Amino acid sequence: MSSILQGNKVYRVLLNNNTPNLRSCFKLITYSQIEPYRYCDSMDEVKEGKATVLFPKAVFYNPVQEFNRDLTVAVISQFVKDRQNEILLKNKTSQSVKVASDQEDCKVDVETASCTENKGRGDIVNSDVNSDLATEELEAGKVYENGVRILEGLAASGLRSMRFGLEIPGVREIIANDFDHFAVKVIGQNIEKNGLTGMVKANFGDAAMVMYQNRGAKDRFDVIDLDPYGSPHQFLDAAVQAVGNGGLLCITCTDAAVLCGNFGETCYSKYGSMSLRTRYCHEMALRIILQCVESHANRYSRYTVPVLSVSVDFYFRVFVRVFSGQGKVKRSASKVAMVYHCTGCGAFQLQNIGTIIPAKGNNIKYAPSQGPPVSKNCEHCGHTHHMGGPIWAVPIHDTDFVGRVIKHVEQNKDKFKTSDRILGMLTVIQEELPDQPLYYVTDDIYNTVHCTPLTMVQFRSALLNAGYRISLSHCAVNSVKTDAPAGVIWDIMREWVKDHPVSQRRLIEGTPVKALLSKEQGTKISFEVHPDANPPSREKGLLRYQPNPDKFWGPKPRAKRNMDTEEDVLTSASKKSKEV
Ligand SMILES: C[S@@+](CC[C@H](N)C(=O)[O-])C[C@H]1O[C@@H](n2cnc3c(N)ncnc32)[C@H](O)[C@@H]1O
Ligand SMILES: [Zn+2]
């Protein structure tokens, strides 16, 4: 039995395949007369965070995305607090100040605060709208007339919106929108069930249209959450316009195969960037998404500041603030870069598209970059390069913000089922070298050289002893982010194989290993254990890289779609009966 919506009617379909007269299988019920759970064949009740929601099979729900929802609740909660502080700050001074608050050391810099730009251009300054909030201790579940407005563009059952309403303090209104009538009915019911009438509103519409209708200066949202099936690309143009100045976009992408280089040409068509199939593809994916959001924003004299970007399980999630300001938009070309990736040894080099040159006084000039940074063949192994990108080449997180989210989660640990994972991942993120895009993976290095592996501590010590910085990336276990040039990595390996020789049968002419090991050693290498070789997140024993969270882990398929016409239903039912 399943339910199908047509116009304002719901068909309760009894698919009895042995019945020749299919019309007798349908029972027509007037939609408005009936509550969704009464006509659904099965309606599961799910408790997550403070919310309890009903899920019919026909509406999308993926339990392993609880981490995504927990993290989003934490990030938006912190964002709301930060906005409050920015307002206080703006009211007090235009300098960087320490704001005394429940987060003792929350330092907010006016540079990144939303409030200062574009006044008088008709762009609503949200801090003005919210100014009453700034002095209040906020509570979750309470409607604040001057609180934040949140749009969940693709809400399915509205679970996320219910959690926002019940768990994020300082909210005015949440629009839980979906383009499926049935889902919207379920959202309505979940609003009542969670006592959120008046704060959360169910809305039927195409998310892009809803955002276009709200792009006027006074209508923009403070937060927009986009959690689509696959790629969000068709919503980005509207999203960058419908978010207020300094507002927050929270975007999920589950099209990992496209973003990780399996379909570079598709990635180009969706994100305007060529993805590469490499060991650092997960971070590259995040950077492709960020450059894509930025390029959409630039068209409307806006620019973005990523506050947190995570690669999780099978998906990517970015949290990006959007600001207005044509002056800063000019910097965008220097924030993105092409990637040259050696097809032999995996060494990579970035080539920024634009560059900023200091000029007279405090002035700057913008110019195209000079390049390329690599020769036709790799200087280390002689193989050719693939070129990918453009990618976002500046920091993908705001480490101060990440620190505040960590504090928020530590203080509210019992509210997030996935708090251990959030804390582990965010701590690794805080340790990431912010100015070194992409990474090597040590297993990959050892495979290229065909040698016995070093321990992580030995490898890290060798780089630190040579005077370079090193960190992990949250995107991959055994990852190495460093400011050392690729040549130093190969120097480490050349030193290592002196005592751990590579089998002669591997040293075939034309292979990367043959070329790499034939080169002269450049840097002096020591494997003596360096005091900083163990990252603090490892020493503390945090849950840094979680194995697959569930047995049936992965992106869930679309919820079964409601068929459009009775004819479709009949055709489908008759197909089914033939299959039996
Ligand atoms: C992945 S689910 C959303 C899951 C939800 N955010 C959560 O956390 O459980 C995607 C939803 O987007 C809806 N959808 C698809 N295209 C849409 C569009 N153009 N506008 C609005 N909703 C859309 C689908 O009906 C589906 O319910
Ligand atoms: Zn190479």
Summarize the topology.
Elements: E1 2-6, E2 9-13, E3 26-30, H1 36-39, E4 43-48, E5 51-56, H2 66-92, E6 97-98, E7 107-108, H3 126-129, E8 143-152, H4 159-167, E9 171-178, H5 181-193, E10 200-204, H6 207-213, E11 221-226, H7 233-242, E12 243-253, H8 256-259, H9 264-271, H10 281-298, E13 302-312, E14 315-324, H11 326-329, E15 336-342, E16 348-352, E17 354-358, E18 364-368, E19 385-392, H12 399-411, H13 419-431, E20 440-441, H14 442-449, H15 456-465, E21 470-473, E22 476-482, H16 486-499, H17 512-518, H18 536-539, H19 566-579
Parallel strand pairs: 8-9, 8-11, 9-10, 11-12
Antiparallel strand pairs: 1-2, 2-3, 4-5, 6-7, 12-14, 13-14, 15-16, 15-19, 17-18, 20-22, 21-22
Helix pairs in contact: 2-4, 2-12, 6-7, 7-10, 12-13
This protein binds S-adenosylmethionine (SAM) and zinc ion (ZN).
What does this structure look like?
It comes from Pinctada imbricata. There is one protein chain. The protein contains 19 helices and 22 strands. It is an alpha+beta fold and 580 residues long. It has a domain of 102 residues: N2,N2-dimethylguanosine tRNA methyltransferase, C-terminal domain (Phenylalanyl-tRNA Synthetase, Chain B, domain 1, 2-Layer Sandwich). Strands 10-9-8-11-12-14-13 form a 7-stranded mixed β-sheet, sandwiched between helices. Strands 1-2-3 form a 3-stranded antiparallel β-sheet, with no helix packed on it. The protein is globular. The two termini are 16 Å apart. The site of zinc ion (ZN) has 9 residues, from loops.
